[in-house]
Amino acid sequence: MIVLALDTAGAACRAALFDATAGRLLAVAGEEIGKGHAEHLLGFIDMALDSAGRELDAVDRIAVAVGPGSFTGIRVGVAAARGFGLALDRPVVGISTLSTLAFSARANSGSQEVLAVIDGRREDLFCQSFAADGTPSSRPELWPLPKAREHFAGYRGAIIGSGAALLAGLPDAVSGRITPDPVDIAALVQLGALADPQEAPARPLYLRGPDAKPQEGFAVARAQDSRAQGGETGDGEGQTP
Amino acid sequence: MTAAAANTLPHQRREGESLVLGIETSCDETAASVVARGPDGVGRILSDVVLSQIAEHSAYGGVVPEIAARAHVEALDGLIKAALAEAGTRLDVVDAVAATAGPGLIGGLLVGLMTGKAIARAAGKPLYAINHLEGHALTARLTDRLAFPYLMLLVSGGHTQLVLVKGVGDYERWGTTIDDALGEAFDKTAKLLGLPYPGGPAVESAARHGDPDRFSFPRPLVGEARLDFSFSGLKTAVRQAAQAIAPVSDQDVADICASFQKAITRTLKDRIGRGLGRYRQLAADLPEAALVVAGGVAANSAIRQMLQALCAEHGVRFVAPPIKLCTDNAAMIAWAGAERLALDLAADPLSVSPRSRWPLDAQAEAVIGYGKRGAKA
C-alpha cells in the first residue's frame, strides 16, 4: 500500500510517499515556508512523486495532518486531501499532530507512556496522553494552563512537545514563545498507513471555537407590543448573501 | 471509481459539448455544479447544488469568516460528488475544473481552490481560477444567450457595481460603492431593528406595511455625474432615526424599512439611469442592448420593478436571471470556466493564489473611501 501524506498544519508544508508494504519511506518533499501553503503544496506533491518515481494513480490512500495547528493551514491540507480522495476514489485519513508527536517519541525512546503537549499560545495547552503501546489514553483536549498543571500533576510518563516546559512550570517557559511543534512527516505517513478510515476521518481537529460572539446591544429597543424577533418577517422571496 | 459511478455513463453530454465542474466557496454558500457548453455557445446546467450556511451565521447577524470556512471544508467534497452524480457524469469525462479564487473571504476561497487544484491534478484536467464577479457577469450568456456588450448591475452583500461587460475577461467598471455594499446596508438595517438575518427579505417584508414618506433618508451621490454608490451615510441616518424614536413599535419598524427602501430605490434609479444613458450612447445601434441584474439584492421586488421601468424608458432589455442564479452558485463559476475553455484561454497553474480582493476591471482606479487595502465591495 502506497500512502501519500500531506502536512500543512504548521510552518512546514510537506508531502511524503510511504510504501507501507515494504515499510519504506519513498520520498519527502517540502520545507518550512511559514506561509504560502496553498501555493506550494501541489508542487511539493509532484516533487515527492517524481523523486519516488511514482504516478499519483499508484497512491492507495491519503493521510493528512488535521491539527491542532493553524486553522487555515489545516484546511489547506484537508481540502486538498479530500479533493484527491474524491478524484482518485481512495480513502483519506486524518491524523492529529498530537499523535504524531507521541509516535515520534516512541520511535526515539521505545515503549513508554507519553503525554503530548502543544503550546496553544494563549496561556493554554493542547494535551493528549498515550499508553505504552501507543493507543490514546485520553481524548485530545485544550486546557487552560493552571488547570492542565493541576490535572497532569504527578504524570509518570514522558512529557513531550512545545508545551512541555510550560506544563512543568519551568522558569523561562512563556506561552507563545516557542514555535509550534513541527509535524514529523515520517510519523504522519506511518500513522496514516495504520489508521482505520472509518475511525480517522479527514476532519479538522481545531480543539478551539471559531472565536465569534453574537453581537449584542446593536439593535434599538423595541416597544412592548413588538412581535417576537424573526416572527412574521422573512417571506423567503430571496436573500442578500 | 466506485461500482455505481462506473456504471453511470455520461449520457447527458451532447455532440461537441464541453463539460466543466464548478466550485464556489467565496462567502456563505458552499456550491458545486456541472455545466455543459455547446460549440454554438449554448449552455446547459446539468447540476447546481448549493448548501447555504444561513443557519450557522444567523445568530451573529452576518457572515463570520471562520465559521464559514469550517462549514465549507466539511461539506464541499460531498457536494461535488452530488453535483457529478446529478449531472450523470464523472470526473474523467469532465473537460475542466473551475473554482472561485476571489474576491471573497480568504478562508473559504482556500478550501474551494485547494479542492479544485487537487481534483484538477488527480483527474488530469485544466484548472481555471475564476473571479467570482466574472461568474456573475457572464451568467446572462448562459441563461439568455446575451451578446456583448451589455451592462451589469451587481448588487449583493459583498458587492455593488455597475460594469460594462465587453467580452470574456474584458470588463469596464463604471461605478462601485465607496463604502458599504447594498446588501450589507439591508443586513445592518435589519440587525438594528431586530429583524432576522439575512436582512434583505426581512426589510422588504416589513416595508410592505410601512409608510415610505415618514422618514426622509439621504440619497447619497444622487445628481453626481460619476456612477459610484455610497450607503454608509444612509445606514447612519437610519440608526439615528430609529434611536430618536426608540423604543420602536412594529409600525415604526415598518415605516423605517419602507423609507429606507424608498431611499435605496431612488438612489439606484438616479445612478443606474445615468449609467443607462451612457450605455445607450455607446450602444446606440446595438440590436440587443441589455441591463443584467445579479446578486441577492436582485430578489428585492421594489428594486426589480424600478429597474424594469427604467430599462423600458431607455429602450434597453432588462434581464434578471432566476434568483438561484443571481445569488452565489457554482453554475456561474463552471460557466465562466466553460467560456474560457471555449476561447482556448490559458488554464491557471496549480500554484495560483486565492485573492480576497480582485477587481474585475484591472484598469479601474481605486475610488476615494476604499481605504488602504483597496476595494471592499
Automatic annotation (TrEMBL), chain A:
Transmembrane segments: none annotated. GO terms for molecular function: transferase activity. One of its GO terms (biological process) is tRNA threonylcarbamoyladenosine modification. It comes from Xaviernesmea oryzae. Keywords: Transferase. NCBIfam families: T6A_YeaZ (TIGR03725). Residues 231-241 have a biased composition (Gly residues). InterPro entries: ATPase_NBD, Gcp-like_dom, T6A_TsaB. Residues 202-241 are annotated as: Disordered. This is tRNA (Adenosine(37)-N6)-threonylcarbamoyltransferase complex dimerization subunit type 1 TsaB. Pfam families: TsaD. GO terms for cellular component: cytosol. The lineage of its organism: Bacteria, Pseudomonadati, Pseudomonadota, Alphaproteobacteria, Hyphomicrobiales. Residues 31-128 form the Gcp-like domain. The keyword Transferase applies.
Automatic annotation (TrEMBL), chain B:
It holds the Pfam family TsaD. One of its GO terms (biological process) is tRNA threonylcarbamoyladenosine modification. One of its GO terms (cellular component) is cytoplasm. InterPro entries: ATPase_NBD, Gcp-like_dom, KAE1/TsaD, TsaD. Residues 45-335 form the Gcp-like domain. Its EC number is 2.3.1.234. Binds 1 Fe(2+) ion per subunit. The keyword Lipoprotein does not apply. It is found in: Cytoplasm. SUPFAM superfamilies: Actin-like ATPase domain. Keywords: Acyltransferase, Cytoplasm, Iron, Metal-binding, Transferase, tRNA processing. Its main location: cytoplasm. HAMAP family: TsaD. Belongs to the KAE1 / TsaD family. This is tRNA N6-adenosine threonylcarbamoyltransferase. It comes from Xaviernesmea oryzae. The gene is tsaD.
